[in-house]
Each structure stands twice: as C-alpha cells, then as structure tokens.
Amino acid sequence: MTYVLESNDLCDYLLETEEVNFTHSMIQHKITELFQTDLNENQKIDIAFKFVRDQIPHSWDIQSGVVTRTASEVLENQTGICYAKSNLLAALLRGIGIPCGFCYQRLMIFDTPEKGYSLHAFNGVYIESLRKWIRIDARGNKAGVQAEFSLEEEKLAFHVNAEMNEQDYPTIFKNPNEKTMETLRRNRNAVEMYKYSLPDAL
After folding, report:
1. Which DSSP symbol is given to 75?
2. DSSP 59
3. How far apart are CA 133 and CA 172, in angstroms?
4. Residue 99 and residue 194: Cα distance in Å, rounded?
5. Are 70 and 19 in contact (CB under 8 A)?
6. For 116-159, how does the pLDDT look when each residue is reduced to its tens digit (9 = 90+)?
7. Mean pLDDT over the full length of the chain
8. From CA 137, how far away is CA 154, in angstroms rounded?
9. What is the CB neighbour count within 10 angstroms for residue 152?
C-alpha cells in the first residue's frame, strides 16, 4: 500500500495534544525508564511498541470496564482499547522526538458482517534512517493476532477482507480521529462500548 500523509511536515507528527500528552509526569517517567541506555532509533521504536503491545492489555481481551483515552490515563490504568493504546504509543515516541501518526482500518467487529463493523486504530511511524514511514499495530497479540515491528514487511494485527466490505485507509493522520476520541469521552464502560458504540467508518 502507498501511504498518504495528512501533512508533509514531520513536525506535525511530533506535536503534543490533549490525548498525546507526553509532557505528563507519568509519561516522562516511563520514557526515562524505557530508554535508559544508548539506543538507536529502531531500538527505541521496538521497545516502545513492545511495551504498549505486551504490557498494556487491550480492554476487551481482559474484559475491563475501564475507559481510558489520554496516553497518561492508559498508562495509569494499564489498559485501553486500540484508540487509547495508539495514543500511548504516539506519546512515547513523540516524547523522544520520533514522528508518529494514526492509521485506521474498517473491520468486522466480530466474525460476520451482520454483527457490524468498527474502526480499528494503530500507528504510523517515521524511520529517519530509512526516510520512510511504516505502520505498526500495538493492539496486543492473542490467538490469531500476531503484530510485529518490522522494517521489511508490514505485520499488523488484522488483514483486511475487502470482499466483506472491510477497508484499509491509506492515510497517516496527525491526530487521533475525533469520532474515536468522542466515543471514549462519552462512554463509561469499555466492554459495552466495544460491543455497541464504536464508530464504523472515518
């Protein structure tokens, strides 16, 4: 896939936002903890990716009712759905000067079209040494889901089935999609939100 950048200015993918609040003391502490040694760019990305993927459980996977939105909320509560986890990964990377954006797929929320669709969020990250963008998905691995950080081959959590009206959006956005953030703002139970309230298209 050829990616489409919402902005050609890398600085736009380094900005702090309400959700990507990397100057928050908790995020700064985690940055210091994760990146203590002299690491190169790819090692830093890999560490941040694996931390969010493996150490922050997806709310649905653990059936947590807690709704998180900002990066600091995700870190504090140690859970989030993909919309929230992508905010945390963006905060960790932007906080160390690595451009990071937001990507989306439209997927069947469960296993058949009749059960509905939802937006799935993940991240795009700029690799300075290669002068290219790649996409990474820190949703969290489980049976049937094996996302990895790879420079050679895209290894996302989900493969889009176009015959089932799923869609892979090519744009790498500067900020998290407002529909997804509004969903997190207005809901109080993550499990119920996941089943009934996720937006199904950009």
Report:
1. H
2. T
3. 9
4. 29
5. yes
6. 999 999 999 999 999 999 999 999 999 999 999 999 999 999 99
7. 97
8. 10
9. 6
